[in-house]
Specification:
With 272 residues, the chain is mainly β. It has 2 helices and 16 strands.
């Protein structure tokens, strides 16, 4: 990855995204076994007690339509206990983050299709190690590219911390994922990284994600997200500040900001 490029899902392209391609799901063979039953899927509105932070003084970014170049960059890294690979019907297709002992945070576009979803949590390797669990319920945010997935069991992995504020403009942000390491000219399904990768990006301002939510506009430093990195975390100081949503696979990636949606994340997790 140039910096891991979030998975580019072909169905997302059909949505006519002008700003950037969604880092959607891409296939990976010989993945984890999917659960026997499909999870319950619900959509919940944000809490009414101030779940959204006001966004002021931010820069609006113009849509980019430049063709993506081959995605190569960043480097391999050992997974933390909360990094998780997403599998749909046994195929590796997105990245995600464990945020409680029972809940996974990922991109809405990674889990909004019918299917059986499973997760490999805390392993550097996409196809072995770590802790595995299946999805039992999926809660989609109604107006942002976020989803909370309830696991079919409690896991002992230490979850990630969620940021309640935005990274400073100009500061460096780390991104993580098992996404494509080749450009869109090749089929991203055939170049998914077998090990977790990371890259450094720079916070440039705020923009919008795939579903119109508030996103961090991150510019490439030594890499950029590609297909399969969708739903993965952007962090500063070990705290999750964003969830991978869209990318031009060349110069920028947009991560749905966690700060405006902390109350929603907590309210979903509170339901057990």
């Amino acid at each position: 990855m140039k910096a891991p490029i979030l998975s580019l899902r072909t169905t997302a392209c059909a949505l006519g995204l002008a700003a950037a391609a969604a880092l959607g799901a891409v296939g990976e063979t010989n993945a984890a076994t999917a659960p026997a039953g499909a999870p319950t899927r619900i959509t919940t509105a944000p809490p009414t007690n101030g779940g959204y932070a006001a966004v002021t003084g931010t820069t609006a970014f113009s849509p980019k339509t430049s063709k993506a170049q081959p995605i190569i960059g960043g480097g391999e890294i050992q997974a933390q206990t909360y990094h998780a690979r997403v599998f749909q019907n046994g195929r590796g297709m997105c990245t995600s983050t464990l945020v409680t002992s029972r809940y996974i945070l990922t991109a809405r576009h990674c889990v909004d299709q019918p299917g059986q979803y499973a997760f490999r949590i805390g392993s550097t390797y996409a196809q072995s190690g770590g802790t595995t669990a299946a999805a039992s319920q999926i809660t989609l945010h109604p107006s942002a590219d976020l989803a909370m997935v309830r696991l079919d069991r409690t896991v002992s992995n230490t979850p990630a911390r969620i940021a309640t504020g935005y990274p400073q403009t100009g500061s460096y942000v780390s991104i993580y994922g098992w996404g494509a390491t080749c450009g869109p000219i090749q089929n991203e399904a055939y170049c998914q990284s077998p090990v977790l990768k990371t890259a450094t990006m720079r916070m440039a301002g705020l923009a919008t994600d795939l579903h119109g939510g508030t996103a961090l506009h991150l510019e490439a430093v030594n890499g950029v997200g590609a297909g399969g990195d969708s739903g993965g975390p952007a962090t500063t100081g070990g705290t999750v500040v964003g969830v991978a949503s869209t990318s031009d696979r060349q110069t920028f990636t947009r991560y749905t900001a966690t700060a405006p949606y902390v109350n929603w994340i907590q309210s979903v997790a509170a339901n057990g």
